[in-house]
Amino acid sequence: MDEADALIGLVRVESPSAAPVLLDVHLSGDPYAQGSDVGITVDRGVIRYSGPEWPHGVVSAGNASTDGEPRSYFYMGHGREFPANSEVPIDVVRQAVKEFMESSGARPTCVRWQDAP
Questions:
Q1: pLDDT confidence band for 31 (50 / 70 / 90)
Q2: Longest dimension (CA), the chain
Q3: Binning pLDDT at 50, 70 and 90, where does residue 67 land?
Q4: 8 Å CB contact between 59 and 113
């Protein structure tokens, strides 16, 4: 999935540190089925997944931030908050996007999940 690597690489370069970018990732053909929100910074990111088995969504679980504050990522100029412990290394984000796409939208297994707030 070279395309996923290229997209994540581009977003990492272009995403401002004060307002990191949040992507809305869906399979082509049905944007209202399962989906994933993917936030990207230079070295980490967040993932939110929702689908038939998780209608309220689940969020990536990583290490708690040192300040304990929620993390904000921006979709079309609007901030969305994620729990302070939701950020994971960028390699996990990359692997999760690829797994989502290659599995026809299944929840990635490479991520430790927690209930979405």
A1: low
A2: 41
A3: confident
A4: yes
- CA 49, distance to chain mean position in Å, is 8
Q: Is the pLDDT of residue 104 over 80?
A: yes
Would the pLDDT of 1 be above 80? no
At a CB cut-off of 8 Å and minimum separation 6, what does 1 contact?
97, 98, 101, 102
Helices and strands (H and E) in the chain: how many = 2, 8
Spatial distance between the Cα atoms of 59 and 47, rounded to a whole number of angstroms: 6
Q: Do 87 and 71 touch, CB atoms closer than 8 A? A: yes
**Cα distance between residue 110 and residue 70, in whole Å:** 23
